[in-house]
User: What shape does this take?
Amino acid sequence: MRTPLMAGNWKMFKTPAETTAFFEKFLPLVAQSTHADVAICPPFVNIAAAVEATKGSRVGVGGQNCYWQNKEGAFTGEVTPAMLKAAGCQYVIIGHSERRQYFGETDATVLARTKAALEAGLTPMVCVGELLADRESGKTNDVLTTQFTGGIAGLTPEEFAKIVIAYEPVWAIGTGKVATPEIAQDTHKAIRDLVEAKFGKDAAAAVRILYGGSVKPDNVTGLMAKPDIDGALVGGAALKAEDFAGVVNF
Ligand code: PGA
Assistant: This one.
């Protein structure tokens, strides 16, 4: 069976001191939660504080992006996956829609970053998701197929076995408009079918597919009840210890 993964994406929020304060509140609230893997992906500058605060706990730490090679070099503003690993990260988010929308991320760079992250021993959470216009014009599956084909299907079966997929409909991110459990389930199933066609039945049965987009303590239970939803990637509700604990303890 697939162990749920509940991951927080802090985006561009919090200082190191606020990071430490978050974990002081959060860790006791999830100390008994062994039903799921839990992770927080803070801004780079807070990774040291998060790793220090979560030492000895079951909560993992991740980056929100990484460079597409592990070799150091003159690439101002970038961080290698190996650096994240050395700093104590286990995870990294790759291809978030905000990276695609504002920072020129493409399916090809998603693939390259994912391979580099795997090479460094990180677990990539690779994001896919359609825009509102795509969904309204009936193009959701086409868009997901393109993102899957260009960004994930280029992995080897061995590489694919180590990734997590995050389905995040862009119209649901930060809008309070969560996808209904039925819409999310249908789309997760469609993604799992793409996986099966490319990597086979066993890979499709094993891969964790997270839902992201306005997940909150009061809507997480309905989503997690669906057979193809294996966890959540949580933005806004991951910033407050009580809220994220409510999501983790769905
Ligand atoms: P949200 O963000 O939970 O604030 O909608 C989710 C995400 O972008 O990962």
Summary: The radius of gyration is 17 Å. The domain at 5-248 is CATH 3.20.20.70 (TIM Barrel). The longest strand covers residues 123-128.
